[in-house]
């Protein structure tokens, strides 16, 4: 659960785009995912949406990080950002990636209150440090570098930054939860 007041309880600043106005890219995404509010809202800026969906899809579906590492990082970003929309979607994806309910609950709390493996701790600590300082300490970098290759290190930092950026947009635009 995100640490801040969920923004979804507020009125959206931009309503999702009506289906009649969807371009081919948005139609293609919706055909796979369903008409999720994240896509139908961000799809209001079609050029930006096209560029963003490529990067996001690569990191979510085609990246070098394993699903568990990816979801640990994303859920911690959602928590740190108070992004209820991101949190709700990635709790489901995190479960599919093998995260337990205890681990998911721990991601919404104090990092040191859970007995993380050293790899999991490094990933969650990286999300916390990037959120707080916009960089990584040598200790966290070293812990990550023991387990991740060069490409995965780059990808993890980019993933955390990407989902932080997305949390900004979702929170500021007040994108509403999707119907289940």
Annotate the secondary structure layout.
Elements: H1 24-33, H2 37-42, H3 46-61, H4 67-81, H5 84-96, H6 101-107, H7 118-133, H8 138-145, H9 150-173
Structure description:
The protein has 180 residues and is mostly helical. It has two domains: 20-61, no CATH class; 67-173, AhpD-like (Up-down Bundle). Helices cover 64% and strands 0% of the residues. The chain has helices at residues 24-33, 37-42, 46-61, 67-81, 84-96, 101-107, 118-133, 138-145, 150-173. InterPro entries: AhpD-like (IPR029032), CMD-like (IPR003779). Keywords: Oxidoreductase, Peroxidase. Residues 47-129 form the Carboxymuconolactone decarboxylase-like domain. One of its GO terms (molecular function) is peroxiredoxin activity. This is AhpD family alkylhydroperoxidase.
């Amino acid at each position: 659960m995100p640490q801040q007041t969920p923004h979804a309880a507020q009125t959206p600043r931009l309503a999702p785009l009506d289906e009649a106005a969807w371009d081919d890219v948005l139609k293609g995404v919706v055909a796979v995912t369903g008409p999720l509010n994240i896509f139908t809202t961000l799809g209001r800026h079609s050029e930006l949406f096209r560029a963003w969906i490529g990067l996001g899809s690569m990191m979510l579906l085609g990246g070098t990080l394993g699903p568990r590492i990816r979801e640990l990082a994303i859920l911690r970003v959602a928590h740190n950002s108070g992004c209820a929309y991101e949190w709700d979607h990635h709790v489901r994806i995190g479960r599919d990636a093998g995260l337990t309910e205890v681990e998911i609950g721990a991601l919404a709390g104090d990092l040191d209150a859970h007995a993380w493996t050293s790899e999991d701790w490094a990933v969650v600590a990286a999300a916390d440090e990037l959120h707080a300082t916009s960089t990584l300490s040598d200790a966290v970098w070293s812990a990550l570098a023991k387990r991740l290759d060069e490409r995965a290190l780059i990808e993890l930092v980019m993933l955390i930054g990407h989902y932080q950026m997305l949390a900004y947009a979702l929170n500021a635009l007040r994108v509403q939860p999707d119907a289940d």
